[in-house]
Amino acid sequence: MPVRLITGPPGAGKNTYIKEHGKEGDFIVDFDAIREAYPMMELEGWKQIRNVLEEHAKTFDGDAWVIRCVADAEKRKTLAESLGAVETVVLETDAETAKQRVEERGRHPERNSEVFDAIDQWWSQYGVVASDVIVKPDTGPIRQDENKMPKQNNEHGYPDDTPIAEMTIEQQAAYWKRQSRKHEAAKKDLESQINDPANKPLSREDLEKEIRADIAKENLPAEVRAKFKSVIADRLTDEDFDEVFESIDHTKFLTAEGSVDADKVEKRANLIAPPSVKRVTRRNPATPSHQGPRERNSASTVAAGKELFEEFSGKN
Fold it and tell me: Are 309 and 252 in contact (CB under 8 A)?
């Protein structure tokens, strides 16, 4: 059950890397996918879901991938250790390429400016440790002593992709001045969200219940089918059962809590194929039979069961 941590700036190609190196059935924890799945939630709720999924990744019976944008080397190392990651892959996609990819994919063009700032910030905080596997665009993994970070100046007065420790005093001053302005704006925005009573985060217990409920909804049609099958499997052939079940609305056989209502299923199943119906195995007419003519039970045909079902549901 190995876990691999994949990091890099927004637009680095983290999902693409997993598609190329992972396999079907791998467990992937992707913050962007969580945001898309739960648009009604806020940042704190998305983080809670991510925490639940990352805990599951540790015990997943197979390969797991955790996607994170962690630029700081020590924080990334601590995160990898908490996940028990067997490998930390850093996609060292330069800022210009990352921004171009974000713009080309066009998912949320209204947020491009925000994402571009996040890319610049990632590079300004970026550092490496000995355990990192560095991957550059179109080159694959390389040794760290071959790793040369490109230098890119911008209008803010400091290089985009240089660790703070390698900046000049003037560049560091420009960097922290800009960060101060950004953090002040983020603080005001966060305070407005905190003061809004509609933005109360879910508790961990409520969040886990919501996730389990979503999973249960996906499984309900199969559970209803299985319950019907258990009641009338000995009365219909598989072919006839499939034909009958296609006309059944599974949502009508659920309790108020969302589970399968066994009593409703049994009543409807007995109307479709009464207990007196005998299962008839279809035989190829060309195949000779040595059993002689079979006597039909006048109340046991599949057609009779279907007529009862249609009459009961008001289709006639």
Answer: no
pLDDT tens column, 23-44: 888 899 998 888 888 888 888 8
Residues of the chain with CATH 3.40.50: 3-199
Expressed in angstroms, the distance from the first to the final Cα of the chain is 56
Residue for token pair 């691999």:
4
- Yes or no: say if 149 and 92 are a contact pair by the CB < 8 Å rule: yes
* Distance from C-alpha of 227 to C-alpha of 270, rounded to nearest angstrom: 12
Count Cβ neighbours within 10 Å for each residue of 134-171 and write b for 16 or more, e otherwise.
Answer: bbbeeeeeeeeeeeebeeeeeeeebbbbbbeeebeeeb
Which amino acid, one-letter code, is at 138? D
For the domain spanning 3-199, the CATH number is: 3.40.50
Which residue, 152, 28, 12, 27, is CA-closest to 90?
12
pTM: 0.46
pLDDT of residue 66: 93
Residues (pLDDT < 50) of the chain are 139-153, 281-301, 315-316
